[in-house]
């Protein structure tokens, strides 16, 4: 379930037994990534594809239409986000698994400034119930300085078709003029054949998140419809 949260949700929880290739297309009322809107609170479209190898190696790509308010610097990330990732997952006993990955966030239409950056990510999973994750980057959010995140995510199935889930994260930057912050979400998803419907509330503990101002970080209710293939 994409839920408009970027690529982090795609990281595999355990190695698979056969080659798997999956894709998805999502229409979302607001693309929110780590508590901040990436579409200026407007609806947008996302798509992605991911491949999992029997060895536990996985890779994929994600694309989304973005929109950001004008700023006083005259720079812009542009209207397209294109991400790619490569990683490895492995089981650790019957109930636990872990994965590591390298991620690249690219904004090919950016002007006045290079908004692209890379991250390393790691996750620890307990069944399909709990995920503990962290990322680190030497150019966090294209800040020209290091930063890291820590996240915890919980999921609870509500029958065969419904799921309750939520996450809490902390984003910290080395740059003193960028604001560290907490971000969280909680929501319910439902599946019907190849379609997934999700309603989710996002919020942060600060009016500013990195370089994003209050118009992008305030609490919001987001709905999405995804179709997988």
Describe this protein's structure.
The protein contains 1 helix and 14 strands, in the order E-E-E-E-E-E-E-E-E-E-E-E-E-H-E. It has 229 residues and is an all-beta fold. The strands form 2 sheets. A 12-stranded antiparallel β-barrel has the order 1-4-5-6-7-8-9-10-11-12-13-14. A two-stranded antiparallel sheet has the order 2-3. Mean pLDDT is 89; it is low at 1-16.
Lateral arrangement of strands in the main beta sheet: 1-4-5-6-7-8-9-10-11-12-13-14
Instruction: Please give the radius of gyration in angstroms.
Output: 17 Å
Q: Kindly, what is the distance between the CA atoms of the first and last residues, rounded to a whole number of angstroms?
A: 12 Å
Low-confidence parts: 1-16
Instruction: Report mean pLDDT, rounded to a whole number.
Output: 89
Characterize the overall form. Answer: globular
Assembly category: single chain
Enumerate how many helices there are, as a single number: 1
Q: Structural class given helices, strands, pairing?
A: mainly beta
Query: Strand fraction band?
Result: over 45%
Quick one: how many beta strands? 14
Indicate the percent of residues in helices. under 10%
For the largest beta-sheet, the strand count, sense and barrel status come to:
12 strands, antiparallel, barrel
Reading the helices and strands in chain order gives EEEEEEEEEEEEEHE
């Amino acid at each position: 379930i994409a839920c408009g949260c970027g690529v982090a949700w795609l990281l595999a929880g355990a190695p698979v037994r056969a080659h798997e290739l999956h894709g998805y297309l999502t229409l979302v009322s607001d693309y929110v990534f780590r508590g901040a809107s990436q579409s200026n609170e407007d609806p947008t479209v996302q798509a992605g594809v991911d491949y999992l190898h029997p060895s536990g190696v996985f890779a994929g790509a994600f694309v989304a239409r973005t929109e950001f308010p004008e700023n006083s610097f005259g720079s812009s990330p542009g209207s397209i986000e294109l991400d790619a990732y490569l990683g490895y997952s492995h089981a650790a006993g019957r109930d636990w698994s872990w994965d590591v990955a390298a991620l690249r966030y690219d904004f090919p239409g950016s002007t006045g400034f290079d908004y692209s950056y890379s991250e390393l990510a790691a996750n620890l999973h307990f069944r399909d119930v709990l995920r503990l994750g962290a990322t680190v980057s030497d150019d966090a959010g294209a800040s020209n300085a290091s930063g890291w995140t820590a996240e915890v995510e919980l999921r609870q199935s509500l029958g065969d078709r419904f799921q309750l889930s939520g996450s809490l994260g902390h984003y910290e930057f080395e740059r003193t003029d960028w604001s560290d912050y907490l971000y969280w979400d909680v929501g319910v998803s439902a599946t019907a054949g190849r379609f997934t419907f999700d309603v989710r509330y996002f919020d942060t503990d600060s009016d500013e998140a990195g370089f994003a101002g209050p118009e992008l970080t305030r609490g919001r209710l987001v709905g999405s419809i995804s179709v997988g293939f």
